[in-house]
Each structure stands twice: as C-alpha cells, then as structure tokens.
Amino acid sequence: MHYFGLPHSDFFKYPSTSLGPPSAPFENALLAAVFDASMKVSMPLTIAIVYFSVVHFVNPLVIARQKKKAHLENEKLTETQLKRLAPAPFHIAKSPLFKLFVLLHNVFLCVYSVWTFVSMLQCFGKTVASMSLRYNSQSRLSNFVYAVCDVENGVFNQDFMTKNLTILGWWFYMSKFYEVIDTIIILLKGKPSSLLQSYHHAGAMMCMWSGIRYRAPPIWIFVVFNSFIHSLMYFYFSLCCIRVRVPVIAKRILTSLQICQFVFGGSLAVFHAFVWYYDTSSNSYNNCIHNAEQAMPLMINVAYLTPLTMLFAAFYIESYIKGGKK
Description:
Layout: E1 2-4, H1 29-38, H2 42-69, H3 79-83, H4 96-134, H5 140-149, H6 165-178, H7 180-188, H8 195-213, H9 219-241, H10 248-271, E2 275-279, E3 284-287, H11 292-321
Antiparallel strand pairs: 1-2, 2-3
Helix pairs in contact: 2-8, 4-5, 4-9, 6-8, 6-9, 8-11, 9-10, 10-11
C-alpha cells in the first residue's frame, strides 16, 4: 500500500555526520578494506579533483602538438578551428599492442555493463518476489515500491549476497574510476578531452559514492540505466576498434538515448521523494527518502545531471544538427 505526498520533513535538513557507512558486504579481507576506504568522501573527491586537474593541464599540450602537426604553432585559432584540427597521436598510440589494449578495454566494459544490467534485473526479480511475501501484496507495482524504498529488506538487502544493490552498486562505483582510461586513450590518440568527457567521469564518481554510502533508494536508477547505455556504447566503441562501419544514425540514436537517460532518470529519481509506503513492521507510512542523508545523494545526482544534460544536448546539436565533424 502506498500513496503520493510531500517529501519527508527531514528532506531539506543538513545531513548528519554521525551516520556510519554501510558494513562491507565481502568476506575477503582485502575487498572489505577497499570497500571501507571507498566509503570515505576523501577517496572519490581526491581522485575526481586530480583527474580533472590533470586533464586541464594536459589538454593544452595535446592541442600544441595538433597545431605543430598542422604547422599552425603561432596561429590563434577559434574554438571551432581547434575542434577541426587533426589528431596528433603519441608514438605509443600507433603500436598494435595499444590498439589491442583499446579493443580489450572496450570489450571488457561492454561485457561488464551487460553483466551489471542483467544482474540488477535478477536482483529486482528476487526482491519483488520476497516483498510479495513480506507485505502480503499481490500488486507488482506495490512490491516494486517496497523493493526500492525498504532499504533494510529491499534491493540493498545483503541476504541475496552477489545479487543485491550494495555489491552491484559498489562494483559499478569502482568501475567509474577505471573508466578514466577512456580519457587517457583519447589523450594518447592526440585529441584533447572535452569538458563533457571530463565532467561526465568526475561527476559520476561522486554520484555513485553518495548513493552507495548513504544507501539512497534512487541510486538503482543510475546503476540500471547507465549500465544499459554503457552496454550499447562500449559495444559501439568495440565495433569501431575492429573497423566495422557503423551508420551515423546508430551514433545519433545512442546520444539520444543518453540524453533520455538523464532526463527520465533524473525525473524518476526526484519522484522517489514523493512516494510513501506502508511499513507493516512499524505500522506506519514511511517516505521512500527516509532522511536527510538519503536526500543528499538525490540532490547531488540532480545537480550533476542538469549541466550534463545540457552538455550532451549541445554535443547533439553540434554533431548532428549543425553537421559538425566527428
């Protein structure tokens, strides 16, 4: 049983710093130690700042190489002219070993994304079934709401071991650090990293950290939607690596899906704040966003997605409507 109403009274309060992180869901000591370290805000924040700063300082060096290759070292070029400069790849980027690494990198992320997406669907399937028994409900919609909003017994429940949002979400959070290799590949190929690329990777680290650290119900959207889009995206990149000609319409559809992901996913995340469900254990209605700590990841994600959507929209217009170069 559920209804829609205004968010919890604690929604706009300042989060408490006394709330401890979730316990490590691993028996392996090394994984447990990494999990505990990753729950400290200093880890994603430091990596994101270092990553963004390094890209900021390396980009001018890459552009200088491009201008030198085009014999335009002393020319002041417009932003449009800079984007049209030919790549100036570093020597390592021309080696067969590097090209093989790039292919394996994209294949790995494609397979991993598919695994995450399928595993999350299985997690929801098992959790919704258990909610039917726990809440004695035959409504699939109600059981889905329970699975998402009941943090202790829903998709975050660690009783399912490898098939719960805590583990799947944490591995997805870890993958955001590995995806920095995308930017390294671009730079080594002699092209500067765009603001869209850098902002996308840095912000994703913080969003996933906050969602897993505070077990915010809407974080399932990030994991499910993003893993699905990444499955398609890295499959496309893998095809490009083996020189399979992909129609431009396919890339256009992929960019459109990414924008839809941000708009629909962000809206659905905010919608959680207005959902109330009946908790049989306490005989009372609970808001899906239980407290200020769970509200903070929601706000971080919305704040991150707003400019990201505009950057993707600008990329779409420049690439497909204005006929900009690939």
